[in-house]
Amino acid sequence: MIKLTRDGKYAMTIRFDLHGVNDLIEAFQNALNGAQGNIELDEPAMVGNKKIQKLTFSCHNEQDQLSYDVSSLIFELEDEVLEYNLGRLKECIVSLNFAPAEICEVGFGKINMIIYGILENSCEEGI
Length: 127
Description:
There is one protein chain. The chain is of the alpha/beta class and about 130 residues long. About 25% of the residues lie in helices and about 45% in strands. The chain has two helices and eight strands. It has helices at about 20-30, 80-95, and strands at about 1-5, 10-15, 35-45, 50-60, 65-70, 70-75, 100-110, 110-120. A four-stranded mixed β-sheet has the order 1-2-8-7. A four-stranded mixed β-sheet has the order 3-4-6-5. The longest helix has 17 residues, at about 80-95.
């Protein structure tokens, strides 16, 4: 499970369970390998007036950026940010904890936005 919420003007949260952690690991690894990492959201999210159904991650060694493309949000992140969070996600599988919650800060139009990650309890899913 992966869901996205907009939390005010300057923040978004990616909520995930353990299945979602594995999807994020795969997407970040693909981005580090020069491909795009794509993740379908479990339910569409509204960001501004856009209906977002997919998150796309790519490696971009300039300032971290966030942009729209049709029904997806594109995260262009530095390799250091991808590598750091890849390690944190792998640790999250073992510790069942994703802290601190901040994944990155990205430029989004004229503002800077903080992206948070929250591991949600997945016990009811039998994981």
